[in-house]
Amino acid sequence: MKRIPDIIVAHLNDEASKDEVKRLCEWIREEPDNAKEFARFSLLHAQLRGQLSGEKRARESGEFPVVRQASASIKSGKASRTWKSVVPVLAACAALVCGLAFWLHDSHEPLVEQPIGDAPFAAIEQTVDAEWSGDAKLAKGDRLAAQTLRLRRGIVRLLFDDGAEVTLRGPAQYELVALGDTKLTSGLLAATVPPGAEGFRVETPTAEVVDLGTAFGIELDDHGVANVLVFDGEVEVSPAGDGSKKRLREGEAVRVMNNNAVEPAQFDTTAYEELWPISSGIERSTGAFRFSPPWPRRLRFVRSDDDIFVVPEGHATTLAEPLRVNITKPGRYVRAENLTPSVISAGRAVRSFILHFHPNHGGDRRRFERTTGSITFDRPVLGLIALHEELAASAQRFPGRKAGELLEHRQLELTGNRVGDVITLRDNRRTVSLDVAAPGRFSDLVRVIVDASVEKNADSN
Predict the structure, then answer these.
(1) Contacts of 290 (CB under 8 A, 6+ apart)
(2) Cα(137)–Cα(126) distance, integer angstroms
């Protein structure tokens, strides 16, 4: 592990890693003398750079001044007085800079540096029956730099370091050019771009699609003609080789032809239905669970006597305030008094899903019949919200549709009797099981809070 002086030198030369900068800021905050020591290093570094720069200019102009040692100049009376006045200011600035760095890191805006050269900037989050062309042997968890992906068959979900997500269905050819810059040559693509990653670009043989903070899909036919749909938000579509731009909004679709013509198209999401569970981070489900498409927002919950609907609440988001949850520990919960409440701290990147059972029946029909199922997410579950007070408090926290959380009869009835509900968080912290009954006017509602950190959590492997 590097010593602090070495980290300071690396930082002043713009060569320190994020972890090293974090360690340096923590060290500066520990003691006032540490901030002063950092200030001395900074001033000395600035003087040396200034003298070397001046010497270079002098050599280039034919002049050769005598170069004095920085330490000698500091020992002079004038320099000493300057030092005493500058060090406190620099120390205060050091603390301010560190505070600003940590504030940016903890805010909802992702702090991501543009990768350079061969540095990876995306990862494979999930695969379903994926087969790659050639000798490629890519798997879940692999980090990806600039390269071309050739997916022979199956589905693959990619997570970029700025939070953008792309799901591909094979056969597809997709090139990663740089962070926020990609090319689709063939296949079907669905993308979700959260705040902070706007400007994500997909180039196709006939068009360029640039998001404006959105969720969209692109399907290429055998001739490279692009069908572009906007599930949420807005995108700009530009025909290849044409400077014109067309803005599409939620629920709109166009077809970009080989002759640069942009034609209105039917908004038909059928081709994407297979992708939506995977693109939302759901690995599998059993029993009564049925996936509801995450976009567009105007889709409402439908009633069913047999299905528990799974509804993603938009894209991943960073909690601006702490979030109260009812269940945090694995176990089978039958009674409300046995819940394990806790608080998920602000600054945590999360994704929210609603599990909703709303029967069609009226009166007492199916009163004692039960509906069961399990659903597994690809990331750890941080907490479950199942009671009215916490459901109502979290109703406005996530983008997407609402499910009537303000209504008292939309919650789990954890009473312990034969018409009460049962919820289980499995030991793997990724599988949630429901055993529910909704007599009369009642409906069952659960909000699942899943870890959405860009860095893979060790528990999610």
Answers:
(1) 304, 307, 308, 309, 310
(2) 14
pLDDT reported for residue 104: 36
pLDDT digits (tens, 9 = 90+) for 288-297: 988 877 665 5
- Regarding pTM above 0.70, the answer is no
Q: Which domains does the chain have, with CATH numbers?
A: 4-106 (no CATH), 122-272 (2.60.120.1440), 282-460 (no CATH)
Q: Average pLDDT for residues 357-373, to the nearest whole number?
A: 70
- What angle do the packed helices 32-61 and 4-12 form, to 10 degrees? 40
Omega prior to 120 cis, within 30 of 0: no
pLDDT classification of 121: cutoffs 50, 70, 90: very high
Residues 6+ apart with CB under 8 A from 348: 318, 319, 382, 451, 453
Q: Of all residues in the chain, what percent are helix, strand and coil, respectively (each to 5)?
A: 25, 35, 40
State the angle between helix axes of 4-12 and 18-30 in degrees (0 to 180), rounded to the nearest 10.
Answer: 120
Whole-Å CA distances, 62 to 48, 56, 67, 157, 318 = 21, 10, 15, 60, 57
Q: What digits encode the pLDDT tens for the residues 407-439?
A: 667 788 899 888 889 999 999 999 999 999 876
Evaluate if residue 284 carries a pLDDT over 70: yes
- What is the enclosing helix (H) or strand (E) of 7? helix 4-12
**Alpha helices for 271-365 (secondary structure H):** 276-279
Whose CA is closest to 320, among 297, 281, 350, 361? 350
Whether the CB-CB separation of 207 and 239 falls below 8 Å is answered with yes
The strand pair at 422-425 and 147-160 is best described as: unpaired
Report the percentage of the chain scoring pLDDT > 70. Answer: 71
Count the Cβ atoms, other than its own, within 10 Å of residue 180: 20
Pick the more confident residue, 108 or 138: 138
Instruction: Judge whether 236 and 209 are in contact, CB under 8 Å.
Output: yes
- Give the list of residues 6+ apart from residue 302 with CB closer than 8 angstroms, or none: 292, 309
